[in-house]
Amino acid sequence: MPRGSNLPAVAGFNETVVLDQIRRSDDGVSRVELVALTGLSPQTISNVTRKLLQRGLINETGKVVGGPGAPRMMLQLNPVGGFAIGVHIDPVVITCVLLDLEGNLVAHSHLRAPSIAIEDPEEGIAAIAAAVDQLIAGTAVPRDRVIGLGVAVPGPVDAVRGRVVKPPLMLPWSEFPLRESLEAATGLPTLMIKDVTAAAVAEQWMNAENPSRNFVFFYYGTGVGVGMVLNDEVHNGASGNAGNAGHFRIAPDGPMCSCGRRGCFSQAVRPARLVDQAQQLGLLDATAATDLHSVFGLFERLVASAETGEPQARQLLVASVEAVGSFIVNVTNLLDVDRIVFGGPYWSTVEKFFQRELPERIRFSEIDNLSHSVNVASSVIGEDVVAVGAACLVLAGSFSPQSSKLQIAPAVIKVGV
Amino acid sequence: MPRGSNLPAVAGFNETVVLDQIRRSDDGVSRVELVALTGLSPQTISNVTRKLLQRGLINETGKVVGGPGAPRMMLQLNPVGGFAIGVHIDPVVITCVLLDLEGNLVAHSHLRAPSIAIEDPEEGIAAIAAAVDQLIAGTAVPRDRVIGLGVAVPGPVDAVRGRVVKPPLMLPWSEFPLRESLEAATGLPTLMIKDVTAAAVAEQWMNAENPSRNFVFFYYGTGVGVGMVLNDEVHNGASGNAGNAGHFRIAPDGPMCSCGRRGCFSQAVRPARLVDQAQQLGLLDATAATDLHSVFGLFERLVASAETGEPQARQLLVASVEAVGSFIVNVTNLLDVDRIVFGGPYWSTVEKFFQRELPERIRFSEIDNLSHSVNVASSVIGEDVVAVGAACLVLAGSFSPQSSKLQIAPAVIKVGV
Question: Which one of A74, B142, B235, B353 is least enclosed by Cβ atoms within 10 Å?
């Protein structure tokens, strides 16, 4: 139910608007320019910028600009005014990143997920907290400048309670109080988000040069999934679980999937499944271990074999490109997005192959409801994309203008205290 | 780029917030209750309600409520304070509706689309303008109380220019200046929207009893498509063309579609296609005309035949139910919606059959990223749903709080005037 707005709500909103404009300026921006950019009065800009300077979030660069009118002092974001931690919990690797206020990657670490961390959530949380401590200790960042921690996890998630619910490859974590345990172990305010959605947050936040208001992030990892930004808003869905693409049914008579249905998209594109098929065809050593850690190397060999033109390897990969192309046409038609971004841990392995084979398989026709082109690109962020997105969630929550915040918060009524 | 907020922007927003709260109250609401509901101060509520009374948008009901504190005067929406016209242009029928401020259907008319209206847009616009005139003249509504007109059209749309671009069944309308011609012919400010998206607007606006913040409207008409409300916002897409489901590829080796691809969803569910198959199987008279007008009756006979248990007719329809079930699982997994609403001109024909056969074919499994149930229902609005949605778009634009409106509008700079 929408609520009203008043001056305190507006003041907080205007601070984020000004901060966001300063963040987006490469070479700083003057107060006069901020008046033009935001529509706010010179007096309001003067008040807001004074507060932001006091809180250490922006700097006066000392650079004075000439031109018509009085000389103007330029303002820039103070990148070391605040920091955010991002953690990506994945069955294969746990990634931690530390971003500054500008979104620059200050430090990162990768913890090849030890079985203990996957089998015992308590141990997992302790390992992550230790990794976060090391990350902060290894830099000159004062801990009290770290605003918060974002943690990205495989779905299904229970966003309200901050938990995962029966994630196929991390079953021991099901219903474990993940968010609150991590908050307690690190002492940092903690937000939770689904992994593929975090990837979309990262792309939205970091790719200022080529923004799109409606795009899909195609995440190519142990499984496949999509993150969505629709009308400039990250789409989480009713329960925070949007983006499940792996069980998109693409062929009613396709192979049986572990979900009990036939013809799921993941059967056509999941690296472990392609490796399995390659082993059956004798393209890869059938006796090689295919645990989550080993699949990566085997998949690289399969792709390398396809690249050299080995017909069966090529055929396997082309079939997955066909499926991805078809999926992209479907999703573009449904959502009317104008950009598809690819990324995730397995993307760099197949990137060249896809770049060569995919465009001709994204077949739009006149009947598709599109009056614009669709841009297909690789993510500007590399393998850390999900962890970066989780950290950006913290930055976005703290600093990015969200007009819903303009509304007066409902009073919290405590009962029986 | 987000812009700032200030007092005039807030005042306009607060008016819509108060009006929306009054609209949502069945039996009226007092100023004291409005303070609690909106978070606004008593003084602000007093000022805002005075303005709304002056403009004739709300009434004091005279009903005074007791209880603790002073007696309170109840406020209600004045349903005849304003009206909106909705027009649905469809190749088969042109529907016009007149709604009052509460969204009540005051009057409607159906113009069995004459070929002239489809073949000659100029004639079509004249016919629509005449129908709108008759609709208003047939009621006691003063024309100056009609706020505006919403027009819903088949895609593809060019939302910026207010046109359709090569709509398969209305080719003569391609690139015709639809919105501005209709605005000129009726003298009413005109908004344009894609038909399936209008259906979702109608459901969002009218179904106050069972609201969902994330739902899909499955539109079963000459073609199929979906309207989407995601996170409480109607999703239009980058170009206003979201919701194209007909060319969702559901079977890579399926029958060839008019779009040049194989296995499109519409091939499995489009009434004309099912009628065609039934004719080939000898279930329907193979010599019967299958123009857009005739398909309806033939389709009704096919469904009636399936209802009586004729095996081949049943098999045809069950296959389409299978396809719809699979599509719904796909879309729910992708978007994490918690409600699917069915409607559109062909829905009432198949409603009973689907209600019996569909639930067991919407097969979610544990691996689906859902931590909630999915409600499947028929639309609360009947055959006029798209026209009603187009009219609701006018009401929503004028009266519904949209926090994006809180931001100061950029100044319009006229060049060379």
Answer: B142
User: Domain B7-77 falls in which CATH fold?
Assistant: Arc Repressor Mutant, subunit A (1.10.10)
- Looking at chain A, the number of H-run helices and the number of E-run strands are 13, 15
Say if residue A351 is exposed, middle or buried (CB neighbours under 10 Å; 0-12, 13-18, 19+): middle
Query: Chain A closest CA to B207's CA: distance in Å?
Result: 14
Predicted confidence (pLDDT) at residue A11 exceeds the cutoff of 70: no
> Looking at per-residue confidence, does A128 or A365 come out higher?
A128
Strand partners, A343: A219
Tokens of A386: 């999900």
Rounded alpha-carbon distances, angstroms, from residue A198 to A265, A306, A393, B27: 21, 31, 8, 44
Closest partner residue to B14 among A5, A155, A322, by Cβ? A5
CA–CA separation, B186 and B147 (whole Å):
12
Instruction: Compute the distance between CA of residue B225 and CA of residue B247 in angstroms, rounded to an integer.
Output: 9
Q: How many contacts, defined by CB atoms under 8 Å, are there between A and B?
A: 253
CATH T-level topology, domain A82-201+386-399: Nucleotidyltransferase; domain 5 (3.30.420)
In angstroms, the separation between the Cα of residue A371 and the nearest Cα of chain B is 7
Measured between alpha carbons, how far is A401 from A39 in angstroms, rounded to an integer? 14
User: How much of chain A exceeds pLDDT 90, in percent?
Assistant: 53
Q: Residue A288's pLDDT is what?
A: 87
Closest listed residue to residue A295, CA positions, set A225, A355, A245, A221: A221
What global pTM score does this model have? 0.88
